[in-house]
Structure formats: structure tokens, C-alpha cells
Design brief:
Length: 490
Amino acid sequence: MTSEKFIYKRLRFYKFFKNNIFDIKNKHFRSPRSGKITTISQAANILKCSTRTVKNNLKVFQNYEAKEFFTHKGVGNRNALVYNKEYDRKLVEKYIEFDNIGKSDDKTIPFTIHHFLTEHDLEGSESTIRRRLGKYVLGYFARKNTKRNFEKKKSSEITNPMLEKIIKKAFEFKVTKTHLKENLPFGQITEVDGCSNYWLPTSPIIEERDRKATIHGMCDSSGYLLSAKIDWEETNNGYIALFTDVFTNYGAPSEIRGDKRTSFQYRGLQNTKIGQAINSLNINLRCESYGQFKANMERAWGATQPWLPKHLAIKGIRTYKQLFEYINEGDFVKDYNNYFNKQINLSKGNNFRKLFDQEIKAAFVVKESRTVKEGNFFKIDNQYYYPINNKGERVIMSEENKHSTFKIYTDMIEGKMFIKIHNQKYYLKLADYTSDYIERESVLKALESDVNMIIYEQDKIIRMYKSEINKLQSMILNSSDYRLASSLKK
């Protein structure tokens, strides 16, 4: 059933659209009575909403009848039927059974909502269950503000004596440093994550004020920031630069914790390029998508977001070029640790394992299988590449290797790809699939060099005009007139 609040909102839009005709060409509203022109921004101010909301409601008004305009599209959908008060009641009952508060020991750390989710196969995502359960249950690790807000909006829809005891115990439980920071050897557990924000709100360049950038960071279980790298988005290149920096300066930690990004794992398997590199160094990589799993890194970003823009203003950093230099090559990590008094704690020992440069480089060279495509190309990530020799000349493929499968080696540190033939490297160059296969130089090299011909499949243009090339081969090689070669391109 459509709510009265929704109908009231749509009624305001309906009256406005009826009294003002939208001019598609000039993109403004015009009153047929008075002739008054109203822009979309002015309409948003009148209707007290955003311009995007005006456009969305206008689209519905133009494409549907009046009855459908006042009907919410979410009525009767699956989420409205499944996630209701009865669902919440069952969820709370399972939570009460799981807590077993009568036998719990005050000296032990209480369970978290994540423990509750892993024990039960519940319908719905983790964020949905956390949000719905949070209306009735207060977690033990909640901060003062969360407890205060919970007390204000405390719901009486679900009442149970055991639930009241859980809430009371949660209020009495105090979060200590031992709960927040595991007292482990340095390098036993490291946490990695990215943080995106508007870091330059005071930039003189307007475009830079409205642009986000992502800082990739890694910290120890004590909260000490090991390294940080910045990029425009949370990318593989940002994490690769982060890992190589940590492995070079500190070594290999025993365990790395991150979220379930496809950079680290895909469909539960750590067969991604970065996942393979970390596992090849005998580092335990664990991925979970809840905040407490990497609480120190999350807490570090919570402190960095309000602090860094002010810190940049004090240091006179006002452009992204200066910001990238400061974080990637400057003293950002040192300034962060000094400001928040983060220090390396070696009282429990050092679990970082020293790595040599050759080990790090070898780990970040991963291989994958690819088949030779039509026209001497390898298709990788929807782009086409062809091999070149040491002189930068294209290597032509032989007919006998048609549709063969080869190992493509990706050097993630240098950002290059290559293949190996008889222990010789041939780097891959990004190609334009529509034009690179008809280069005259490639045709001539293929004709005059038997060495290149036995390496790979024949070039597409050679295969297309094989009979003509056999007839004109001697003429092209011995003649100074290259008009024949241009005729091949037609």
C-alpha cells in the first residue's frame, strides 16, 4: 500500500507539472496563463528538493498516467515482504538465544554481531541485518555517542526480559585499549584499506575542490602507520606500490587483513594478481567485510579525514600535484605517526621477515594463459597487444602457431607484460586492432625474415592477401617504388 507521505509529495509535483509546461528544447518550465518561465533550479527551490528529484519526477509524469504517478513502484516488492517487523522479531529471538547471557563470564570479551552472523545462515546481507538489529539491540563495543543515541530512540516494539539484560550489560561494558588494539608482536598482523575523500577543500582551483582522491594505507595491529600511497581511485596500482614499499622497508608480515575487494580475491578465491603475489611470499591473506576485522585501519582513517585537510593547509599544500608528492614521496607517514603519537612496539618481538629485492620483484610477476587471436594479437582486459623485440620492432607470428596458447607474464611493479620464447623476452605493446595489422613495415619484416616467421602466427594482412604477396614478394623487396605496398592496404 502506498503511504500518505509519498502521495502528498507526488501531489505537489503533480500540481506544479500541470500548471507549468516543460520546454524540452530550452529545458525550462513555462506557465501557459502568465507566460512566466521557471528554470529547473528555480523549480527545485519551489518544491524544496534537488534538481535531480525534479527531473526524475518529471520523467515519471511524462511517461505514466495519473494513477501510476501516485503509485509507488516499490509496493509489493520482495524486500517489503521479507524485511518487516516479523522478520525483526525472529532476528532478535535468535540473538537472545545466541547470547546465552546467564553463563557468560565478565572477564571474557563478549561476542560481536559478526560472530552472530557467522553462526546463523540468515536471509539478507550483513549490512541489512546490522541495520535492522541495531534498532533493538545495542552492541557491547558501542561508543558513548552510540549508546546515548540508542537511549533516545529506544524502541518498545519488541520487549523481552533477556533483551533488557543484554542492553543493560552493553551499557555497563566499557571498551578498553586491550579490546581495541591487540597486544601482538610487531608485524604479526597488518591491516590494509583505502580512504576516499575531498582532501583539498581550500584549493584555489575549483575543479580540485570537488574531486576525490584515495589514500591506500597499511598499519600494524598497534595502530602504527607503515606506509601510504595516493591515487585517484582505489586501484591495483595503489596497492602494489603500497605493498612493495612495506616489503622493502620492513619485510613480509605474518598476516595481512583487508576487505573483500576484487584486488585481493574473486568469488572467495585468492587467484587475483595481487592475491597470487602475496601468497607466493608465504603471507597469510585474510579478507572480511566488517569494520572490526581491521579496526585499527578504520580508526586511522576516521582520524585522518578531519585532520589531513587542516594539516595540508598549514603546510601550504593546495594542489593535487603537491599532495601526491607529499604522500607518495614526502613525510606524510612520519607526520601522521608523530601527530597521533604512534610508535613501533617491539616489546613482544618483531615478526617481519626480511625480503630481498629479487624476491619482491619475482613475487609481483604473475602469469596467465592467453590464446593468439586473429591478426597476431593477445586480448587482455578487452584490449589488444602484440609482441615486440629489443629494437621495438613488431614480431610477426607464424602459421604453425595459429590459435596457440602462451603464458603472459605481468610485471606489476613496472606495469609491463611480456612472453618468453626460448628464454628470450618479448614485451607486449598496446595495439589499435583496426590499424596495426596493416602496417607496411610489419609486412616487409615478415617477408624478409625467416626468424620472425617461425616465432608466431602469420599476420592478418599476410593471411588475407597470401596469394598476392607470393606474386609480388620479389617486386616489393627489389623495387624502390612502394606504391604496390599501398595497394595492399586497399
